[in-house]
Amino acid sequence: MLRVFMTLSACAIASPALACDTALLLAVDVSGSIAPDEYLLQMNGLADALQDPDIVSALVKGQDKLAVVQWSGDHLQQLSLPWQSLTTAAEVAVFAEIVRQQKRPPAYTDTAIGNAIRFSTAQFADVPECPRHVIDVSGDGAENDGMTLPEARAEAEAAGITLNGIAIEIGNDTTKLTDYYRAHVISQDGFVMTAQGLQDYPRAIHAKLLRELTKPVS
Fold first, then answer.
1. pLDDT confidence band for 88 (50 / 70 / 90)
2. Which of 39, 135, 49 has its CA nearest to residue 92?
3. All domains of the chain in start order, with CATH
């Protein structure tokens, strides 16, 4: 009996239960300004980033959890991919392929960033075991619907959630939306990255995931 107990104890010490480090929710803009081919650029860019060896390694090392929300106007938010534990490279590969095949919601209108943040914030009730909560908001315009952004950001910060952003700059002004995200969207401990048009989104989401998953945001 003592030998069995010692063997089980040794196994428990050698193979401790792995806990989730980061719960990262990817909030993807599918408002009316995003054309069908641009939607595919976003989803394929995200899927490609999730297949990068460095990102795969970071996800598995942290035993992280990912979810995807697609959002547009007021009350038009959808949890497209619920929380998924990514504990092996195989699980990350499956998740990436599901992202690539994800269909766009049938209804999309304006840009309600605040509503998207509030909806996303509520999803973290399902992952209390992860000590670090992050919402990754991507979009190509300022809020023009719902008008709840200041309150939503404050609520997320009060809940201990980090808000990061990808500002998809359209047109000749290459910093206007980035400045808007920095002033109104991201949290005090968050950061914003710039994509110069939808064609640049794959590069931006790759760099952003690396920064979010390989070291604490500062």
1. very high
2. 49
3. 17-214 (3.40.50.410)
Bridge-based pairing state of the strands 22-29 and 132-139: parallel
- Cβ contacts of 66 within 8 Å, gap of 6 or more: 23, 24, 25, 26, 59, 81, 83, 84, 86, 95
Question: How far from the centroid of its chain's Cα atoms is residue 106's Cα?
Answer: 21
pLDDT in tens, 96-130: 999 999 999 987 899 999 999 999 999 999 999 99
CA 61, CA 216: separation in Å to the nearest integer?
A: 14
Is the Cβ–Cβ distance between 58 and 51 less than 8 Å?
no
Residue 158 DSSP class: H
Convert the pLDDT of each residue in 175-184 to its tens digit: 899 999 999 9
Nearest to 169 by CA among 141, 207, 149, 144: 141
Amino acid of residue 195: A
Structure tokens at 165: 């952003």
**pLDDT, mean over the chain:** 90
Tell the residue number behind the tokens 């394929």, with chain if given: 44
pTM score:
0.89
